What we know:
- This protein is of the alpha+beta class and 80 residues long.
- The chain has one domain.
- The protein is built from 2 helices and 2 strands.
- It has helices spanning 2-15, 54-62, and strands at 39-43, 46-50.
- A hairpin with a 2-residue loop joins strand 1 and strand 2.
- The longest helix is centred in the N-terminal third of the chain and has 14 residues, at 2-15.
Amino acid sequence: MKSGFLALALTLSLFAQPSQTFEAVSIHENPGPWHVLFGYSPSGPRLTLEGWRMINLIEEAYNLKQYQITLPQGANDIVF
Length: 80
């Protein structure tokens, strides 16, 4: 009886595993000419941001304020 209960518990625990998710991001420098600044274009699960600076991307991704972020000198000069 104990072995049957153990087998049932193991089987149920396998089905109770949380589903795995996968997130990917691709960030490229926007060399210009810039036609859009702070472009925001959602499309289903995909989000395209154009003309954003590094600090603004981090703010958006992690729901932070600028005073909570420290970047290396010059890192915020690049537009993505």
